[in-house]
Amino acid sequence: MKAASSFVKLSLLANIVAAIDPGLTEPESHDNSAGCDCYMVSGPDPGYFQYYRFWDFRAVPNDGNNNYTIAPPPVISSENVGNQSITSAFLNTDSFNADWSIQNGVEDSTANVPTVNSASNVYISRNTSDPNRMTYLNLRAYRLPEFASIAEIDSNQENILHSSIRARMRVLPNLNPLIPGNNASHPVAPGACLGLFTYRSDTQESDIEILTQDPTNHVRYSNQPDFDPSTGNTVPGASSDVIMPNNTFWTEWHDHRIDWYDGISRWYVDGVLAVEKALNVPTMPSALVLNLWSDGGEWTGNMSVGANVTVGVQWIESTFNVSGANPTKRAEKKCNLGCRVDDVSNAGHPQVAFDVTSAGSTMRDGRTTVEWPLQVLLVLWLVYLFGKGVV
Ligand SMILES: *[C@@H]1O[C@H](CO)[C@@H](O)[C@H](O)[C@H]1NC(C)=O
Ligand SMILES: *[C@@H]1O[C@H](CO)[C@@H](O)[C@H](O)[C@H]1NC(C)=O
Ligand SMILES: *[C@@H]1O[C@H](CO)[C@@H](O)[C@H](O)[C@H]1NC(C)=O
Ligand SMILES: *[C@@H]1O[C@H](CO)[C@@H](O)[C@H](O)[C@H]1NC(C)=O
Ligand SMILES: *[C@@H]1O[C@H](CO)[C@@H](O)[C@H](O)[C@H]1NC(C)=O
Ligand SMILES: *[C@@H]1O[C@H](CO)[C@@H](O)[C@H](O)[C@H]1NC(C)=O
Ligand SMILES: *[C@@H]1O[C@H](CO)[C@@H](O)[C@H](O)[C@H]1NC(C)=O
Ligand SMILES: *[C@@H]1O[C@H](CO)[C@@H](O)[C@H](O)[C@H]1NC(C)=O
After folding, report:
1. Which part of the chain is the GH16 domain (predicted)?
2. Using CA of residue 126, residue 107, residue 181, residue 183, what is the dihedral sign?
3. Strand 193-201 and strand 204-211: pairing?
4. Does any ligand 3 atom lie closer than 6 A to the CB of residue 81?
């Protein structure tokens, strides 16, 4: 659930950090596995999808003297309009800016606790204890007396129509005794919501949400609307409070996934199906949003003043279709070289599942129901022509 009127920002400061052509459609160069024609996923309906992206935050090189070991200073009370600088060159590269907009500015001034997005809450961290000195993207939410300083990145691509999206992420445990509401069994400040979702409007939205007031193994999966604004009642079946499968906890690294198909949504953790829904499945082209917010409303609850929550994201992966006319050749491409996104040896590197191009003759561990009958028909047709003496 997004706070009301959140996506279309009223603030003039919104999007100040990345002025992007809003009509952006698929630039073929963004596809980082150009060899594949189409992409399949694990689960009951492998797809296929036509496009693929992988945004990897695990090996960000030092940015001059910034080795990503020190978090940007928290926003202070007087910084109540956002407008902070982007925290690193990495998050301001042309390729990052082409795909994502870091939100910066007032999000909802009328919430119980007003919300202000800040670019300073989106930053890279390096884990110096990790043997690979891995980096990851951080989102941070921080509660000030007058407002909550929150974080959001939005995809510039707004014409996604059906997708399978994943992020490897965790809410970082923090036992700092100065943070109210933390304890050993719940080492995270309550009152924030981590969201990964497709979004067009408050009634065209499909969510993965982690509420930090929930036990650390509960996750919320919803297709909006999940409540009736005229009565305030919840819509039965639109939102589920699910225990993460396979004894997992959101304070650990896991792959959180949402599949949006025509008429059905499915949610997974580490490739294990958690729940599916046919109710309120979005039907309209959408964008992708990752955010961490708190507005003192019933959904998030309140963060105590002084509390902060940080989320780590190793990578985000999306395979998707787009709506409408597409200027690239890709839309006309047939699914001849099919790649799978799941169960690969290296996340972010789809592997060939089948190859029916003229160059590759072997069928591997998958085939489309579309292409194979066409080939059979072609052979039958050639046999027919041969029989008539045409060939
Ligand atoms: C994606 O688009 C292709 C081409 O239109 C279509 O064949 C395929 O079924 C779509 N995939 C999904 C999951 O809707
Ligand atoms: C990272 O940079 C900080 C500030 O320049 C420095 O104090 C620290 O030693 C560096 N840490 C590592 C692991 O390089
Ligand atoms: C926002 O930041 C820019 C660059 O630092 C500055 O020029 C501008 O005055 C700031 N606007 C507000 C409303 O603080
Ligand atoms: C950093 O690495 C250490 C050692 O591998 C691990 O225990 C810790 O959970 C990592 N921290 C994060 C934020 O992933
Ligand atoms: C979170 O809050 C604690 C307690 O005030 C503070 O020590 C810590 O530096 C904060 N962390 C971040 C990332 O702002
Ligand atoms: C730990 O914190 C959670 C969330 O604030 C709370 O629900 C729980 O009762 C606390 N447990 C203990 C043992 O204090
Ligand atoms: C489920 O948990 C078990 C035990 O921790 C682990 O061995 C297995 O790989 C997990 N399955 C998945 C799909 O993550
Ligand atoms: C959160 O705190 C605000 C301000 O104190 C209050 O108006 C609101 O009702 C609280 N929200 C919840 C869910 O208790």
Report:
1. 66-324
2. negative
3. antiparallel
4. yes
Given a contact cutoff of 8 angstroms between Cβ atoms, the answer to whether 68 and 88 are in contact is yes
CA 4 to chain centre: 20
Confidence of residue 23 (pLDDT cuts 50, 70, 90): very low
pLDDT band at 325 (very low <50, low <70, confident <90, very high): low
Tell me whether the omega of the peptide bond preceding residue 225 falls within 30 degrees of 0, making it cis.
Answer: yes
Question: 174, 183, 249: which to mutate for ligand 6, most atoms within 8 A of CB?
Answer: 183
Are 180 and 306 contacting, i.e. CB atoms less than 8 angstroms apart?
yes
Contact 246 CB / ligand 7 (< 6 Å): yes
Which token pair is 139? 């989102």
296 CA distance to ligand 8 middle (Å): 5
pLDDT tens digits for 233-279?
Answer: 889 999 999 999 999 999 999 999 999 999 999 999 999 999 999 99
- Cα separation values, 33 from 53, 95, 322, Å: 8, 15, 17
Q: Are 206 and 220 in contact (CB under 8 A)?
A: no
Structure tokens at 99: 């795909």
Q: Which amino acid is at 1?
A: M
pTM greater than 0.70: yes
